Amino acid sequence: MDKRLKYLNALRTFESAARHKSYTRAAEELCVSQAAVSQQMRQLEQGLSVKLFLRSGRNMQLTESGESLFLSTHQALNLLVNGLNSIQNEDVAGDLTITSTQAFCSLWLMPRLFRFSQLHPDVNVRILGSNQKEDLQKKQIDLGIRFGVEDKVSDSDNLVTEDFGEDVVYPVCSPNLLKHVWLKSPKDLLDCTLVSLANERLVTWQSWFEHAGVEGYENVTKKTEVTSSDLALSAVLSGHGVTLAASAMFSQYIPTKQLVVPFKIKHPMIWKRYFAYDPNSVKRKRIQVFIDWVRIEMASSDPKVLLR
Fold first, then answer.
1. 3-state secondary structure at position 12
2. Could you report the per-residue pLDDT of 134-150, keeping only the tens digit for each?
């Protein structure tokens, strides 16, 4: 056996450091100290008599030899994981941890989760609502449901991203509000309390009014700012003003007539939806079952159907 195989543990560390181009992120992923990663890389370079990394300030780059070794170790580790997965015969039953935005978890996922549990009672789902882009591997999260405005999304090299449609944004309000204000044209919304997200730069009232051909937004004085979409919808459900909301967030309230869309004018910004997960996860079958269920549920809340 090749004596260099005694460096297998160091090669695993090298693959992580090379993939992240960071000793710090490799240490976080492997749950060791940065000093331990640095020491292993020194020992590996000394043992192989080759330079693998070049450091320039805070930036770390692979040498030509490092690039070659990274390609080999990355492929080898993936092959090993696939082999382990193939012999474990993973069952669908078990735990599954999912993360998404606080608003999506609260407004879309949780009201429907009972249907998934009815279909798959042996899958124990853990929901982590967070407005941060959580590190799936570091926090041992199986599936991320994420949103962006770009046609193509990027993620870390060891995750795959899978598109599953998009969300259009409309103004929504309670039917009770319509009993007290006259909304004949989009311009009439300027006289309503406009509920918006604090620090929102993309889906704004100003851009919606401009898209609708309405002037005068800069003169609006009745405004309410909140920190998340679930708080905004909670306000308008009680009759407090009008908000801009993605179709997935308000779809359940249209059939029950708790919310209405006063003007079917879409916001020019469209949210792209996508899944993120580790393709080599031992829970791959379980993840796929949940993804398939989300796709089916999303199809039933299509705004094209709800707003006809």
1. helix
2. 888 888 899 999 988 77
Going by pLDDT thresholds of 50, 70 and 90, the confidence category of residue 305 is very low
Query: For 17-39, what is the mean pLDDT?
Result: 85
Tokens 């449901």 -> residue:
145
Structure tokens at 98: 């999912």
Q: H/E/C letters for each residue in 95-156?
A: EEEEEECHHHHHHHHHHHHHHHHHHCCCEEEEEEECCCCCCCCCCCCCEEEEEECCCCCCCC
* Amino acid in position 293: W
Rg (CA), the chain: 25
pTM confidence score: 0.67
Give the span between the Cα atoms of 89 and 282, in whole angstroms.
9
DSSP string, 178-226: GGTS--SSGGGGGGSPEEEETT--SS-HHHHHHHHT---GGG---EEEE
| pLDDT (0 to 100) of residue 89 | 47
Q: Per the structure block, which two tokens stand in for 70?
A: 């990274």
For 208, the token pair is 């919606």
**CATH fold of the domain at 169-253:** D-Maltodextrin-Binding Protein; domain 2 (3.40.190)
11 closest CA partner among 71, 60, 54: 71
Pick the CATH number of 3-88 from 3.40.720.10, 3.40.50.300, 1.10.10.10, 3.30.360.10: 1.10.10.10
CA atoms within 13 A on the CB side of 25: 15
Q: Are strands 169-172 and 194-197 parallel, antiparallel or unpaired?
A: unpaired
